[in-house]
Design brief:
- This protein is an alpha/beta fold.
- The protein is about 50% helix and about 15% strand.
- The chain is built from 20 helices and 16 strands.
- A hairpin with an 8-residue loop joins β11 and β12.
- The radius of gyration is 33 Å and the shape is elongated.
- The termini are far apart.
Length: about 450
């Protein structure tokens, strides 16, 4: 048995006997003659067990124990009391001593009590280690799935959430980047402050600066009053910048300055306003490639990319597809009041074989539709939309036969864009990822084809 014991007793003979007996049993022993010296020793080093006499000159054993436990409630203490002071021993145990020994000490009694104390110390240590491990592997409250790649994401989040470092989240559209950002915020000391999410692709270039930093009255046409921006509103909290790769280069320079100087200037303003926000950004672009092409500032990339989290696409998450599908099934059958018990095996096979270009977001909408369309207690293949039956990326070919009379690429593109815009409720930022395009490219194509929302 090994472990460290600090013996506190003002009788030298007693200290020597205790040291001799316990050293023989393999314990590492340090002994001091007073409570004052015991406190000094505990400042200097940690001891598994504190074995102290009750009655001593100066600081008594009881006072020593109270002061030690106030500092370290996990400290294990065994009190030694003279025969006839049992009341004090009982009081010591009420105040947190593990056990007491009656003087004169019996050798066997001493060894047994110390052994029991060390069993408890080991249990507490194991318990703390397990709790730490559990905290690291604990899945996040708003993220579902147990694929190793997702467990790794959860581990990183638990490690970095309490810090204030900037984080860059990589992942295809629909993989849950905002959920990760929220999980980081919720696990941080900023959790009671504001969390603001902004999609850089959804805001026109002319307005993004005022959206982030605010503006003064009259700073541009239509600025009828002073408005504070997201950075000021999120003071002490977290700002999540989604699709950061779509931010124009001049705005990137202003963002870099705000991060470096920890201050912003409203549009049209003269004063610098100090801000304290944590920046989490996300992208589905390869920002390293973008920096090489001059589309993204290298210095800003290094500022944002202190910690990188890569979210796997749904097609790489194996059985998580089933777990998520069942979660969404419960959610939407409760929300709609339609009792659907599960997903039929043939339908499940289709879900597992599909490549999910829209990731978790697409799976959610497929299951929502399945619940609404289901004719029986179980979702069947006919309740799933055509898109998941014909997986073009898996077939390696068109999801339809090539027409004999040929095809107009322009007409096909116009139809695809119109369909994507309808699916996305005419929100460009939502339709762009469905077509694998950037916000700007889709905006340009909509103008080129004259596609507009039907009145």
């Amino acid at each position: 048995m090994s472990g460290s014991i600090l013996i506190v007793d003002d009788e030298k003979g007693q200290r020597d006997i205790l040291s001799a007996i316990l050293s023989k049993k393999g314990y590492r022993i340090t002994s001091v003659p007073s409570g004052e010296e015991a406190l000094q020793e505990l400042e200097r080093a940690e001891y598994d067990l504190l074995l102290t006499d009750l009655k001593m000159q100066g600081i008594s054993g009881m006072e020593l124990m109270e002061r030690v436990l106030a500092d370290n409630p996990a400290q294990c203490v065994v009190m030694m009391t003279a025969h006839g002071t049992i009341d004090s021993a009982v009081e010591a145990m009420k105040k947190g001593a593990f056990d007491y020994l009656e003087k004169p000490l019996e050798r066997e009694d001493l060894i047994l009590t110390v052994q029991r104390a060390f069993e408890r110390i080991m249990l507490l240590k194991e318990n703390r280690v397990l709790h730490k491990k559990l905290a690291e592997t604990k899945t996040l409250p708003n993220m579902i799935g147990e694929h190793p790649k997702m467990m790794e994401v959860a581990r990183i989040i638990h490690k970095i959430a309490p810090t204030s470092t900037t984080v860059l989240i990589y992942g295809e559209s629909g993989t849950g980047k905002e959920l990760v950002a929220r999980a980081i915020h919720d696990g941080s000391p900023r959790k009671d402050r504001a969390f603001f999410a902004i999609n850089c692709a959804a805001i026109p270039d002319a307005l993004i600066e005022s959206e982030l930093f605010g503006h003064e009255k009259g700073s541009f046409t239509g600025a009828g009053s002073r408005e504070i921006g997201i950075f000021e509103a999120a003071e002490g909290g977290t700002v999540f910048l989604d699709e950061i790769g779509e931010m124009n280069v001049s705005m990137q320079a202003k963002l870099l300055r705000a991060i470096q100087e920890k201050e912003i200037r409203r549009v049209g303003g003269k004063v610098n306003i100090p801000v304290d926000v944590r920046i989490i950004s996300a992208t589905n672009k390869d920002l390293e490639q973008e920096t090489k092409r001059g589309q993204f500032r290298e210095d800003l990339f290094y500022r944002l990319n202190v910690i990188r989290i890569t979210l796997p696409p749904l097609r790489e998450r194996g059985n998580d597809i089933v777990t998520l599908a069942n979660f969404f099934l419960k959610k939407y059958s409760q929300a709609s009041g339609i009792s659907v018990k599960g997903i039929g095996k043939p339908a499940l096979k289709i879900l597992l074989d599909y490549s999910w270009p829209g990731n978790v977001r697409q799976l959610e909408s497929v299951i929502e539709r399945g619940v609404l369309m289901a004719e029986s207690d179980y979702i069947q293949p006919e309740d799933l939309p055509a898109e998941v039956h014909h997986d073009a990326s898996l077939a390696g070919s068109l999801p339809f036969d090539f027409p004999a009379e040929g095809i107009s690429i322009d007409n096909l593109e116009r139809d695809l864009i119109t369909k994507a815009m309808q699916r996305a409720d005419w929100v460009i930022a939502k339709a762009a990822p469905l077509l694998g395009m950037s916000y700007k490219t889709l905006q340009y194509r909509l103008e080129k084809f004259g596609i507009g929302r039907p009145e």
